[in-house]
Fold this sequence. Notes:
Blueprint: E1 2-6, H1 9-13, H2 16-26, H3 36-49, E2 55-56, E3 58-62, E4 68-72, E5 74-78, E6 84-88, E7 101-102, H4 107-118, E8 128-135, H5 139-150, E9 154-162, E10 165-167, H6 172-177, H7 181-195, E11 201-205, H8 212-223, H9 227-232, H10 235-251, E12 254-261, E13 264-274, E14 277-285, H11 294-308, E15 313-315, H12 322-326, E16 333-340
Helix pairs in contact: 3-10, 4-5, 7-11, 8-10
Amino acid sequence: MRLSAVRDIQTYNTLAQEWNNLLACCSASHVPFLRHEYLLAWWNGLGGGEWKDGELFTVIARNENNELIGAAPLFYTTNKAGQSALMLLGSIEISDYLDFVVRIPDLPDYCNSLFDYLAGNQAPAWQVMDLYNIPEDSPTLAALRLAANSHDWRYSQERLQPCPYIPLPGDWETYLAGIDKKQRHEIRRKMRRAEEADPPVRWYIVREGNNLEEEIEAFLDLMAQDPEKERFLDDSMRLQMRSVMQAAFQAGWLQLAFLEAGEKKAAAYLNFDYSSHIWVYNSGLDFGYRELSPGWVLLGHLLKWANDNHRQAFDFMRGDEDYKYRFGGVNRYIVRATIQRD
Length: 342
C-alpha cells in the first residue's frame, strides 16, 4: 500500500474515474456526497462559504498494481473550536453523509498506514482530525479507533443527528399498507384533492429537454420563500447550490422535481437519484398554494415513482422533522469522530 497526498486541484481532477469506480464497487459508504464531482463542486465553493480558507490534503493509497484502493478526502483548516484540523471534504453543513473512500477489506491497514503518514513531516501541523457526518454503522469508525489506539492517540465519538429513511418494497400500495392508517388516508386524500384542483396540478422531473438554469433558479426562488432558507441562501450559497445541481445533472444523478398548479410552480424537491436510493436534499414551497398541500402531494408522487422504479430506499437524510416519520421514516444516525494527538 503506497500512500501519497493530493494537494492541488489539478491532481485531484485526474482521479475522477477511478475515484468514482472505487466508490461504486467497494466503499463502506456509497453516497452521492463522496462522488468526485460533488466534492470538487464543494471544494470550489468551500461549502458555500462555510470555510474561509483551507488546504487540500487528500491522502490516497495505491496497491502494487498502481490501482487506487483508498482515499481519505481531507483538507487542512481551522475548525470551529479554533484548532488546526484535518477535516473531511464536504464538512459540515451541506453534506449529509461523509466517509473515507476505501475498499472495506483494506480499511484497517489503510487507517493504520494513514496515521503513520499523518505522523510524519509531510503532513501539515494538525492538532486534531475532526470528522463529521460519518454514518454510525460505517466500518471506518472501528478502523479509526483501532488505528488511534495503536498510535496512542485519543479517539472519541459522538452521535449527531438522526437521518430518517424509508426502506421501499417496490410497490406503491404495499408501501402505503406499511405506514400508519391515518397517514395513509391523508396521503390519498391530499393527492386526490390535488388531482381534482382547478387550475389542474401536474408534476415533473427535470430532464434533458428542460432549461436547467431556469429550473435551478426557480427552485432556489421557491426555497427562499421560507425565511430561514432565505437567510441560508446568500450569494455564496446560491452559487454553491447551483454548482452542486449542475454537477449532479451532468453526472446523471440529479432528481429536481416540481409540482405545478396551472403555470405556477407550487413546490419543488431537490433530490439525488443515486445507487438505487433517492436522497432528499432540500425542498421549496410557494406558501400561496398551502391549501393544496403541494409539498406533501409532490412527496407522495416521488415516493410512488421511487417504488414504481424499484429504488431500494427513500432517504430523508439529516433532521427529525415530523413529516419524515409520518411518511414512514425510521431513524439511523451520523456521528462525529475526533482523533487527537499530543
